[in-house]
Amino acid sequence: MIFVSVLFIGTLVNSQTRNQAYLAYIEQYYKLAEKQQRDHRIPASIILAQGLLESGAGLSDFSKNSNNHFGIKCSDWTGDKIYKDDDSKGECFRKYDHVVDSYEDHSSFLKTRNRYAFLFDLKLTDYEAWAFGLKKAGYATDPTYAYKLISIIEDYNLHRFDLGKNYEEIASKHQKVSTTNSEERNSFRLTAYKDVNVKHEVMKVNKVRFVTSISGDTYKKIANEFDLSEDRIRIYNEVDSFTKLKPGSRVFISPKRKKAPKECLTHTVQGGETMLSISQDYGIKIVELYKLNNMTFTEGAYYGRVLKLR
After folding, report:
1. Would you kindly state where each structural domain of the chain is located, as residue ranges?
2. C-alpha 39 chain-centroid distance
3. What does the alpha-carbon distance between residue 67 and residue 238 come to, in Å, rounded to a whole number?
């Protein structure tokens, strides 16, 4: 596991910076996302994840210059415009006076276009279905768009905002519902925040089982919960014995696979990502990720590089 430690040392600063930027963005805009959910019936988790992804947590030059946090292009737009290279050179994007205008227009954009109509038949708590639905409807050309949204939602526990002001009401309705079945998407996802003694909800990516850590978790605690050794958990997650578990981390409780899902052929490295974080996002063993790309273990994931996932 030495190579994992080396990669961590080289990317620690970037990773921490990204995480703090994401947390700051969430703190700043979660109430606005909840308002959009109440007014327009779009999951707050999806809104925040799209805002984070499309705007680089509000730090990209494009989002700063345009207040456009959702990458919406001009189309039938009659307001201010800004131009930048995207799928083609010099494409036209919408420009807003304030970020709140971007949030409002994003909701209107989804609600007034027929291709997104089916999304509003989905449950507000089913962020996975919304993520895949957005990709299916053509919101983005990136083949991994849905997986990126889901990863952001789960890594930063954004689904807690989908309950909004109905927190106590939903809690009382779901406290008797088992959270051990990953297929029960209506189970109360925030129980762990009220009672640290409850078991983690088991989910899957690439058919690999994982849980999301909460405050106070350690690899040993999660290992004990699932009757595994701490060494086994660390092997599954490819971390050494010195790595401490941070809240909001994805923790695999079964072995990762050699390839990504068949829908995910490649991945373009984004700022702050590492080979390890990418392997965790797609449920691929990091060694296999290196092999697929004919890379040595001394190489890192540099921005803009296109990685093979299968």
Report:
1. 13-155, 202-310
2. 24
3. 39
Residue listed under structure tokens 């762990």: 192
SS3 93: strand
Q: Are 83 and 93 in contact (CB under 8 A)?
A: yes
Cα(180)–Cα(156) distance, integer angstroms: 21
What is the token pair recorded at 29? 């805009």
Q: Work out whether the CA dihedral 42, 48, 54, 60 comes out positive or negative.
A: positive
Contact 272, 304 (CB under 8 A): no
Give kind and range of the element (H or E) at residue 84: strand 81-84
Q: What is the pLDDT of residue 48?
A: 96
Q: What number of other Cβ atoms are within 10 A of residue 103's Cβ? A: 22
Query: CATH fold of 13-155, please?
Result: Lysozyme (1.10.530)
The β-bridge partners of 92 are 83
Distances in Å between the alpha carbon of 220 and those of 114, 147, 167, 244? 49, 28, 30, 10
The answer to whether 65 touches 135, Cβ cutoff 8 Å, is no
Superfamily of domain 202-310 in CATH is LysM domain (3.10.350.10)
Q: 247 to each of 77, 86, 166, 209, how far by Cα in Å?
A: 41, 34, 24, 18
Mean pLDDT by 10 residues, the chain (310 residues): 36 47 90 92 95 91 93 89 83 92 94 92 87 89 82 86 56 37 32 41 85 88 87 86 86 90 85 86 88 82 86
Q: Are 128 and 162 in contact (CB under 8 A)?
A: no
Closest to 155 in 3D by CA, of 248, 24, 219: 248
H or E element: which one contains 211?
Answer: strand 208-212
Distance CA 76, CA 78 (A): 7
Question: What count of Cα atoms within 13 Å lies in the side-chain half-sphere of residue 101?
Answer: 11
Q: Which residue has the tokens 């909004």?
A: 164
Cβ atoms of residues 45 and 127 within 8 Å: yes
